[in-house]
Design brief:
Length: about 375
């Protein structure tokens, strides 16, 4: 029995008639760029996040970069972000011309450690870019309390956390803007690349709209250098279908997380650190990530048993060679560094069954390495 890390084919089988009809409609209409599907999806996603505006772009990376640029952030500015994330969080800051400043993460939520933020703020700091890693929301209340009096923008990297909540309110609309990715493996995934900027600021939304079509509001009149960064009609039509199922899928992920905890606790695997959920937060488990010292041996055992697993991420951002010019090599990020050594993500998707989940835990439990630690 093989168990993938994520099963997009099983997801498609569950919604095939709806997806096939949506694709057929777009192809029959013959309009592929910025048409009615993108417009409708923008409205639906804005409403889903409780925000006034949403602008579809080509990827989550572009959503971050275009938001930063639309906020006027560029050369000479600093943007604070998490030391443990996917490269895109830092890459977008650099692409906008600004300097990323890294802050360590909290060991419980794996998101920006707000207590360590103050020390990273300088007169050049313009924005904080927190990452809702693995689907767990950052401490947005604390971040807002810190950002507002210092007049810092708060740009949420929501790529892994669509539908996650803080005090019953979905991420994406707390700060200046929320940036989403529809990379296929995300909780709301397209059949290609896609992204979205969500905001309550109408002027910011208009500026992102301008940047995504070559810096133009009027055809063949270009105010600024923008780029070609559009969400296309086919992806929007597919995402509209999937958005209708998102809450049910996220609820299934949450149930699977509880089942993992019960099974792992039941097997007595006390050496494993399991994902936690902060008070008032609703995690959407984009990844179900455990921590363990004997990662390599367990990863090998799972792989040999045909079980998908993944290390996200084997390196902190400041340790990435590409980011060396922006990093003081002497600076340490103890929590992020420990995570890079010990994290391991287990299979997690809505269609995961109890039997498959139990099989994952059975292989984990059999792994001598886990027991020995
Ligand atoms: C935390 C984070 N930020 C940004 C991105 C970038 O999204 P995309 O791959 O759509 O450009 C990703 C996606 O992989 C991500 O995980």
């Amino acid at each position: 029995m093989t168990i993938p890390l994520i099963d997009l084919v099983a997801q498609y089988q569950g919604i095939k008639p709806e997806i096939d009809a949506a694709i057929h409609q777009v192809v029959s209409r013959g309009q592929f760029i910025l048409g009615p599907e993108v417009e409708a999806f923008e409205q639906e996603l804005a409403a889903y996040c409780g925000a006034a505006h949403a602008v579809g772009v080509a990827s989550g990376t572009d959503a971050l970069e275009l938001t930063l640029r639309a906020c006027g952030i560029g050369p000479g500015d600093e943007v604070i972000t998490a030391a443990f994330s996917f490269i895109a969080s830092a890459e977008a800051i650099i692409a906008a011309g600004a300097r990323p400043v890294f802050v360590d993460i909290d060991p419980g939520s794996y998101t920006l450690d707000v207590a360590k933020l103050d020390a990273a703020i300088s007169p050049k700091t313009k924005a904080i870019l927190p990452v809702h890693l693995y689907g767990h929301p950052c401490d947005l209340d604390a971040l807002m309390r810190l950002a507002a009096p210092r007049k810092l923008l708060l740009i949420e990297d929501c790529a892994q956390a669509i539908g996650a909540e803080v005090r019953g309110r979905r991420v994406g609309s707390f700060g200046t803007a929320g940036c989403f990715s529809f990379f296929p493996s995300k909780n709301l995934g397209a059949y290609g690349d896609g992204g979205m900027v969500v905001t309550n600021d109408g002027a910011l939304a208009e500026q992102v709209r301008c940047l995504r079509v070559h810096g133009s509001r009027r055809r063949y009149h270009h105010e600024v250098i923008g780029r070609n960064s559009r969400l296309d009609e086919l992806q929007a039509a597919i995402l509209r279908v999937k958005l209708r199922h998102l809450d049910e899928w996220n609820a299934a992920r949450r149930r699977h997380a509880q089942a993992y905890r019960r099974a792992i606790d039941g097997a007595g695997l006390t050496e494993l650190a399991l994902p936690q959920e902060a008070a008032g937060a609703a995690h959407v488990y984009h990844l179900y990530t455990i921590r363990l010292e004997a990662r390599e041996a367990v990863q090998q055992a799972l792989t040999q048993a045909g079980i998908g697993c993944q290390v996200a991420y084997p390196s902190t951002l400041p340790a990435q060679p590409a980011l060396a010019p922006w990093v003081d090599a002497r600076q340490r990020f103890p929590v992020a560094e420990a995570c890079a050594r010990t994290v391991l993500s287990l299979p997690m998707y809505a269609e995961l069954t109890a039997a498959l989940l139990e099989r994952v835990v059975e292989v984990l439990a059999k792994s001598a390495a886990v027991r020995a630690k």
